[in-house]
Design brief:
By secondary structure, this protein is of the alpha/beta class. Helix content is 44%, strand content 16%. It contains 33 helices and 24 strands. Helix 6 (67-81) crosses helix 7 and helix 15 packs across helix 16. Bound molecules: adenosine-5'-diphosphate and magnesium ion. Belongs to the DExH box helicase family.
Length: 774
């Protein structure tokens, strides 16, 4: 105990007070001046008082007012001033890895320290913290893992849950746990931080907890929609649209619109507009899958750079694919590619880190900063000098279609709240301009708020977490959520987990389930990786899992669809497998990359190099995760896990392990093959699949990634597999009543096999369980 005290004294001395900070370096002083001007600063005393009076506090305030960077710091400074510097332990969660790093780095700098001293961060597989760390920024997932280790969070004095308005699944999950924990930890303080006005909802959830709103200030932002750009060439605009008749009396604005339409002349805006002008509320959903018109966005950037005043441009796109395509387009644009004049910066959640300096600081005089971002720049990251915002109107959103068994992450229209939030980003330092690159009609059809993630995603991952945190029965626990998910969605998730062998019949985690619970991904993708590692064909498993988690690397140019299909068939060879086609495409791209021919290779083979690079990155992330849970050893290298990688039977079996129960039975009807699934009856391979044109298909089963329902039901990306693969790797098995057959998954598909075979299989499966248990 004495040692501890000495340590504490030492630490107290190291924890600087505000006054000491003021005497620190110039940069700290400058930041101090900046901090004092933030709206949150004026509320400092009130915030601290409320926190000391009440166990839970809900803080809301406009983005950029200083919630994330200041509030945890106020608490830290307050604790230091009251002699509790050494004993406090403040945790602030962030929904995204990149914001946890960025915020922690900023706060450490504001305190004149290196990251990892008093202020640290922790994200999965990466952390900067030490025994001195008193304020830790971490992802919500990391805090959930800490709860697995210590359900009471002993030693933690404050938990701040940030960006709660986003209604992410992890955050909704975390607040159920914390609400239950509070009575057992009366000394623990909880602060919920939210951007918008939805504070009441959270306050009610915590028994009418007090709320503090930080008043904000932003400059007015002019808003334009797609039709405004066409205003001057009015013959193009259909008369029923809602966006006409706005005043353009202002002469200079008139000129601007003139210039704008001149720049847009070259793009396909006419077609775009006539498409969009037919949109109704009902059809909004089907429009979201339309590709973004990057030409339009490029033209808008060029227009601003040519005709508008100074100020950074912030472009909202949906994901890495469009960001990297737009970057390529800008590199080719004769006007915009001038690197002396334009500083073009991508900002995306899966970038390893962001260059704080370039993103946040003003560029040198004469240079314009153009940030091309996903919706991460909507609330988590605030770039002060943005004056122009280009809003494509979409964001990637996970959605759970009952038909598709895997969660899909697809672009869809954002909510009104998000569109307004994006607009607001333009008015931080002066009046700004926002171009929404869609008609006002679309804006009006957008939902007010986005549905909380817990209501629109599959719940398998969540169910695994609930079990590994030992929170009781899944449905009972989830009924305590802010907005509980549908019972049917919960039941589907549990059933799937039983089917893939992660839960036993009484909803308890199996050894496989325990491992899957530690992997932050769809459990079926996790299972494919684990099986890939155990059965020594990890390389192929990594590639295919990455493609399932992201997308396949093939591009389908509308005008050369035939040639592109042909390229895909070439990769598939005689494998009857879309997945093996992906695998071969990836592997030959890697070879081409070794001697710098990758761009050309992509071009010739209808592959997307942005996607392939992303897949390569994801493979590395998967390896880190596998190594974290003991299924991979970096020092041995991937080749030691690839003994059977060229054995396609093995690869197919591992694919089956991951994709089951998405399985199709192939029945021979004379010279043709017909395809059936248990729940849909007759289905067809998707026309884009390499299995589409096969008349006679000499195999019993196809395993597939997902289904689409259009005129019929089509299975996309499929691979043929053998009876043995299904029996060995296809989820749980149990003997049926008569005992001489093997009934799969309580009647999912009937096999006839002799009792002996059934016994043998079960023995093998037990062996497999044993392997996983080690
Ligand atoms: P909120 O959480 O309320 O949205 P933040 O605390 O994130 O606000 O940001 C407060 C201010 O600090 C903003 O003006 C933002 O631009 C600035 N800021 C945040 N992070 C950095 C950084 N890494 N570098 C420079 N400025 C930053
Ligand atoms: Mg914030």
């Amino acid at each position: 105990a004495q040692l501890l005290d000495v340590d504490k004294d030492g630490l107290n001395m190291r924890l600087k007070s505000e006054q000491e900070q003021m005497q620190a370096s110039d940069s700290v002083r400058m930041m101090w001046i900046f901090r004092e001007k933030l709206p949150a600063f004026k509320m400092r005393d009130q915030l601290l008082q409320s926190i000391s009076k009440s166990q839970v506090l809900v803080v809301s305030g406009e983005t950029g007012c200083g919630k994330t960077t200041q509030l945890p710091q106020f608490i830290l400074e307050h604790e230091i001033a009251n002699g509790r510097g050494a004993s406090c332990n403040i945790i602030c969660t962030q929904p995204r890895r990149i914001s946890a790093i960025s915020v922690a780095t900023r706060v450490a700098a504001e305190r004149g320290e290196n990251i990892g001293e008093t202020v640290g961060y922790q994200i999965r597989l990466e952390s900067r913290q030490s025994v001195d760390t008193r304020l830790l920024f971490c992802t919500t997932g990391v805090l959930l893992r800490k709860l697995v280790q210590d359900p009471n969070l002993r030693g933690v004095s404050h938990v701040l849950v940030d960006e709660i308005h986003e209604r992410g699944m992890n955050e909704d999950f975390l607040i159920i746990i914390l609400r239950d924990l509070l009575p057992q930890r009366p000394d623990l303080r909880l602060v919920l931080m939210s951007a918008t006005i939805n504070a009441e909802l959270f306050s009610q959830y915590f028994g009418n907890a007090p709320m503090v709103q930080i008043p904000g200030f932003t400059f007015p932002v002019a808003q334009y929609y797609l039709e405004d750009i066409l205003e001057k060439t009015s013959h193009r605009v259909s008369s029923e649209d809602g966006g006409r008749g706005r005043g353009y009396q202002d002469r200079s604005r008139r000129d601007k619109v003139d210039a704008l339409s001149a720049v847009f002349e070259a793009t396909d805006i006419d077609k775009e507009y006539s498409n969009y002008s037919r949109v109704t509320k009902q059809s909004l959903q089907s429009w979201s899958s339309e590709k973004l018109d990057l030409g339009l966005i490029e033209a808008a950037i060029e227009y601003i750079c040519r005709h508008e005043g100074e100020g950074a441009i912030l472009v909202f796109l949906t994901g890495w694919d469009d960001i990297s395509k737009l970057l390529d387009q800008i590199k080719e644009n004769p006007f915009l590619r001038d690197q002396e004049k334009f500083l073009v910066l991508p900002l995306h959640g899966s970038m390893p880190t962001i260059n704080q300096r370039e993103i946040f600081q003003r560029p040198p005089i004469g240079m314009r900063k153009i940030v091309i971002a996903t919706n991460i720049a909507e609330t988590s990251i605030t770039i002060d000098d943005v004056v122009y915002v280009l809003d494509c109107g979409k964001a990637k959103e996970t959605s759970y279609d009952a038909l598709n068994k895997l969660a899909c992450l697809l672009p869809s229209w954002i909510s009104k709240a998000s569109a307004l939030q994006r607009k607001g980003r333009a008015g931080r330092v002066q009046p700004g301009v926002c171009f929404h690159l869609y008609p006002k009609l679309i804006f009006e059809a957008m939902p007010q708020y986005q549905l909380p993630e817990i209501l629109r995603t599959p719940l398998q991952e969540l169910c695994l977490q609930i079990k590994s945190l030992q929170l009781g029965y899944v449905s009972e626990f989830l009924s305590k959520a802010l907005q509980p998910p549908e019972p049917l969605a919960v039941q589907n998730a549990i059933e799937l987990l039983i089917t893939i062998g992660a839960f036993d019949e009484s909803e308890q985690l199996t050894p496989l389930g325990c491992h899957l619970a530690t992997l932050p991904m769809d459990p079926r993708i996790g299972k494919m990786l684990l099986m890939g590692a155990v059965f020594q064909c990890l390389g192929p498993a990594l590639t295919i899992a990455a493609a399932l988690g992201h997308r396949d690397p093939f591009v389908l140019p509308i005008d050369r669809k035939e040639a592109a299909d042909e390229a895909r068939r070439r990769f598939a060879g005689d494998s009857y497998s879309d997945h093996i086609a992906i695998l071969r495409a990836f592997e030959s791209w890697q070879l081409a990359k070794l001697d710098g021919r990758d761009r050309q290779y992509c071009w010739q083979n209808y592959l997307s190099s942005a996607t392939l690079n992303m897949l390569e990155n994801m493979r590395l992330q998967f390896l880190d995760l596998l190594s974290d849970i003991g299924f991979y050893d970096h020092s041995r290298g991937l080749q030691s896990y690839n003994k059977y990688s060229s054995n396609l039977e093995m690869v197919r079996a591992v694919l089956c392990a991951g994709l089951f129960p998405s399985i199709v039975q192939c029945k021979q009807r004379g010279k043709r093959t017909a395809f059936f699934t248990k729940e849909d009856g007759k289905v067809e391979p998707h026309p884009g699949s390499v299995n589409a044109r096969v008349n006679y298909f000499p195999f019993p089963w196809l395993i597939y990634s997902d289904k689409v329902k259009t005129t019929g039901i089509y299975i996309r990306d499929s691979t043929n597999i053998s009876d043995y693969a299904v029996l060995m790797f296809g989820g749980t098995l149990s003997s049926n009543k008569s005992g001489d057959g093997v009934e799969m998954l309580g009647g999912y598909l009937q096999f006839s096999a002799t009792k002996k075979v059934a016994q043998l299989i079960q023995e093998l499966r037990r062996e497999l369980d044993g392997l996983l248990q080690q």
